[in-house]
Prior knowledge:
Layout: H1 3-18, E1 23-31, E2 37-43, E3 47-52, H2 61-70, E4 80-84, E5 89-93, H3 100-105, H4 110-127, H5 129-132, H6 140-158, H7 165-184, E6 187-190, E7 199-200, E8 208-209, E9 216-219, H8 222-228, H9 237-253, H10 262-289, H11 300-313, H12 318-328, H13 331-344
Antiparallel strand pairs: 1-2, 2-3, 3-5, 4-5, 6-9, 7-8
Amino acid sequence: MNDSDARRALLEGWLSRELGLHVRAIEPASSDASFRRYFRVMCDRHTYIVMDAPPGKEDVRPYLRVTGLLEPLAVHVPHVYEADVDRGLLLLEDLGGTHYLARLAGGGDAQRLYGDALETLARIQLRGAEAAKQLPAYDRGPLLREMALMPEWFLGRHLAIELPAGERRMLEAAFEFLIREALAQPQVLVHRDYHSRNLMVVAEGNPGVLDFQDAVRGPVGYDLVSLLKDCYISWPRERVTGWVSGYRERLKCEGGPVGADAAEFLRWFDLIGVQRHLKVLGIFARLWYRDGKSGYLRDLPLTLQYVRDTCRRYAQLGELSELLERRVVAELPRANERAAAQAMQPS
């Protein structure tokens, strides 16, 4: 019996013998970029989701802690019915199988869906000040470690680009600029992955919010850019800035952190987006080379485009913009082709 089979047998026994559920069927619900797996459990009258988080690889305690912070804010996270922390098993509310990305790709009403998502985000940021104090700070250390994934995994491993000393210094200076800008923003409760694959379309209390266990106390623009400059779906700049402006007005009405004016708020949004997308370029490449997950490589071009677009708008990132245009843009399609060919080879 392999590890997956053993974990499956463990959760089946937990459901039936320890929780006393009459289980009719269990089927895979989803997986993510971690070692966590999710199963949909059909019982006589209800369906549930079981999170399987193998101890030693995953820890369910951060998930439980952040659940307890978000539920009182009227954020629709999956309710936790039962938890076996030592064995890494959680019995959760089933929020259905339709995430925002699928509904939007099928022609769903973007204005309504994003309106709901922005309203939920406003509740988090306006009501979550005390909750944010209980979370780790998204400060210089993590911000820099995340951006460092980009030269290591995206440039070095995926594109096989070796930067000379001058370009390395330029990149370090750009990172320092982005860190200063991030730390200058008002600090709020940050979900950290508030995007279309982690928002579920639900009939009541839309959206259902997933994958929040890595929440931190960080820049006010971070979750907003995760949502509106999503690595899996894009919108015209004019529409994005309209949503940003409307969101700022929503915060302003209740005395939230909105900056001196709309231009400053948009700057916060744009520049923390560069930090996030540099990180994501590294993570998506690492998911392939370290973890054997090639599916995220297809999202690299859009993620890179976000970085290119913003770097062109801010003079302090002009040298980074020039590097991307000169050395990265043409190489990415070739690197993705190499990786795709390798992924198709028999293991």
